[in-house]
Structures are given as structure tokens and as C-alpha cells.
Design brief:
Elements (H helix, E strand, L loop, with lengths): L29 E6 L3 H11 L4 E7 L4 H9 L11 E4 L2 E4 L3 E6 L9 H4 L3 E4 L7 H9 L4 E4 L8 E2 L16 E3 L3 H16 L2 E11 L24 E4 L6 H4 L7 E8 L5 E9 L5 H9 L7 E4 L15 E4 L4 E3 L2 E8 L3 H21 L2
């Protein structure tokens, strides 16, 4: 269930190109920088360490380097890394030989991405920056920027497995990779639409709490003001409406809500779908079990709970026992690890973009 596959439509490693003369020699793999070393940034780093063809060259964050090393090495949700991480002057050292530079620069315009030969920057700071902030990375020498959230001003939104093959280096400079729920429900909806047709869908995602919430009641917008450990907190999920950006036929046909719950990780996306024709639970499960997405969309007949999916890199794990149908109405549920899976897809998108950039200048 925890296989690290990228599906038939994910980009595969090719021959690494050489950068232009002013840039340093290339090492094997796509060269990535992470701006912001919070939950998203560290999760992306963890995923990249397990991906031989992606190199995290640098991270930029205002926290002290020893603290960055400690928080990367030890995690309250996922436990210790299988590699030793130590802090050295100006950087992190993994297993004694893999060095990542650590910068402490508040101004994106001063970041040395050109000198470091950075292909892609993952912009993971909070509060979520918009396009103008992301463009500062381009001015500093990066060739592309990924926003790990939806942004209306991004050049495009990509969900790995659905449309990352349409990345165009000439047009797509600041891109979004959506959200963890959409990476899950997008694949499920693609399968259902291909097999039966999807007329409309609504999602209700039971989601682990996040750092956007407080431990105790605090000043915040709406229901997020209430303490995360004590409440089920419904919040609007505008990202579900953006499924149409990666599945154009479903534009305007999908909406959803999220309920934050007091667990640190592990989520369940429930989809209520009106199909184009009546189908039995067996037919629906057969389509999902044989989907084209390989390890991106897994299928399980086990009676799973949220802790079972911690550490899974799958965008979604269909829980076959929860599938229901009434005529053309269908209910499908899929689990996902909101941090590990989304970080894995971010690294997959870094890889796809990086190799596309190198092919474009070969």
C-alpha cells in the first residue's frame, strides 16, 4: 500500500542536461530549492531524500540551522528519518555526505538561485504567498516555481497523473500543484468519468488538523478560531471547485467541504457522485481497482482507519468496503496522508518540470 510509483503519465528521468555557462555544473537529478521549512517544506525534503533523481540543493528559512536539522530528523507524526541529519555551518548534512545549504534570507530577491543552478523552487512559506512573491524567485535565477496550494494567478495547475505532461517551459513559470484533497479526488473522478460519466460530484473530506489552527480558541477567521484538539471544524473547501482546471470536462460540476478533526495525520475523502448511468458497487470497485494510475491511486479491501495510511505516498487509497450505489448515485471513499502524499506529488512535479526544462534547452 505504500509503494512509491508515479503512474503511467508521470515524467520519467532522462539524461540530465547541462546548464548555460554562468551556472554551476549539474549534479545528477533535478536541482530544487525550498523556501520555507515548516510542515510542507520539511515533508517535501523528506520525500526528496527518498527520490534519487531530485536533489534539494538549498532551503531558506529564518529558523536556526540546528533547529532545522532537529525538526527534519525527528517528527512527532512520522517518527525519525532513516538517515542521520546533522547541522554544519550554513547547512544540513545527511548521512555525512549529502549537503543542503541553509539560507536565512527574508528577501526572496536576494536568494542565490542563479549561482546554485536551481531548476525549481517550492514556495512553502506561510502565510501563503501569491504570484508576485513567487516571481521574485524567477528574478533570482530559478527557472520555475511551484506553489503547493491553489492560486488564481498561477500559470497553470497540475495534478500528477492527470495533466503534468502538459507542462510547457515557455508558458508555465509559476504553477500550482493543487491541494492534497484534489490530488486524491481528481484521480477518483477521472476513473469514474471514464467508466461511467460524471454528471456532478460533492466531496466531504475528513481532514487532519493543520498548523493553520490553534491548540486553544484564538483570534482567527470563522470556525478556525476554535481549538483544534477539541472540535470537529467544518471549513469550506474551495479547492474542490478547481478540479475543472485539471479535468476540464468537470468544470463547474464539483464542490466540497472539509471537516478538520483532532488527529495529526490521515484523511478520508468521501465523494457523492451522480454518474451518467446506474452502476453496482462491484462495477464501481472494478473500475477503481483496474485504474490506469498505478501506485498513485491504490485500492484496498482492508477495513482501514486513519493511522493505517500514515506514511503512504499514494495520492488516494480507495476503501472498497465503503463504496455504495443507489441507481446512478454513487458514494466512493479514499484515504490519503495529507502530508506524505502531497509532498511526494510535489517532488514528482519537481521532477517532471525539471526534466522538461532540460529537454527544452538540450
Amino acid at each position: 500500500m505504500n509503494s512509491r510509483q508515479s503512474g503511467p503519465y508521470a515524467h520519467r528521468p532522462g539524461e540530465a542536461g547541462r546548464g548555460p555557462g554562468a551556472r554551476p555544473p549539474r549534479t545528477a537529478g533535478v536541482r530544487v530549492a525550498i523556501n520555507g521549512f515548516g510542515r510542507i517544506g520539511r515533508s517535501v525534503m523528506r520525500a526528496a531524500l527518498a527520490t534519487p533523481d531530485v536533489t534539494i540543493v538549498a532551503v531558506n528559512d529564518l529558523m536556526p540551522v540546528p533547529l532545522a536539522a532537529w525538526l527534519l530528523r525527528r517528527d512527532s507524526t512520522f517518527g525519525a528519518l532513516p538517515w542521520n541529519v546533522t547541522s554544519v555551518p550554513g547547512g544540513l548534512l545527511v548521512d555525512g555526505d549529502r549537503r543542503t545549504e541553509v539560507l536565512n534570507r527574508p528577501d526572496r530577491a536576494t536568494l542565490p538561485w542563479r549561482d546554485l543552478g536551481i531548476d525549481v523552487v517550492v514556495e512553502a512559506t506561510r502565510p501563503r504567498p501569491g504570484r508576485r512573491a513567487a516571481e521574485a524567485h524567477l528574478a533570482s535565477g530559478a527557472r520555475a516555481v511551484i506553489l503547493p496550494h491553489f492560486d488564481a494567478d498561477a500559470d497553470a495547475t497540475f495534478v500528477v497523473g492527470l495533466n503534468e505532461h502538459s507542462y510547457d517551459p515557455a508558458r508555465h513559470h509559476v504553477v500550482s500543484n493543487g491541494s492534497c484533497p484534489v490530488n486524491c479526488i481528481g484521480l477518483v473522478l477521472a476513473v469514474l468519468d471514464c467508466a461511467f460519466g460524471v454528471e456532478a460530484a460533492s466531496s466531504l473530506t475528513t481532514h487532519a488538523y493543520t498548523t493553520s489552527q490553534s491548540l486553544l480558541d484564538a483570534t482567527a477567521a470563522g470556525r478556525l478560531a476554535r481549538g483544534a484538539p477539541f472540535n470537529l471544524v467544518p471549513v469550506e473547501d474551495p479547492t474542490a471547485r478547481h478540479v475543472g482546471q485539471v479535468l476540464p470536462r468537470l468544470a463547474g460540476r464539483v464542490d466540497g467541504l472539509v471537516v478538520r478533526v483532532p488527529v495529526p495525520g490521515g484523511c478520508l475523502a468521501g465523494l457523492a457522485v451522480r454518474l451518467g448511468r446506474a452502476a453496482s458497487p462491484g462495477e464501481v470497485n472494478a473500475a477503481l481497482r483496474s485504474s490506469r494510475f498505478g501506485g498513485l491511486l491504490e485500492y484496498s479491501e482492508e477495513p482501514l482507519v486513519s493511522s493505517d495510511v500514515l506514511g503512504s505516498t499514494a495520492s488516494g487509497i480507495v476503501d472498497a468496503g465503503l463504496t455504495r450505489t443507489v441507481g446512478p448515485l454513487c458514494g466512493v471513499s479514499a484515504w490519503f496522508d495529507n502530508e506524505t502524499a502531497f509532498a511526494a506529488r510535489t517532488v514528482d512535479l519537481c521532477r517532471a518540470i525539471g526534466f522538461s526544462l532540460r529537454s527544452s534547452r538540450a
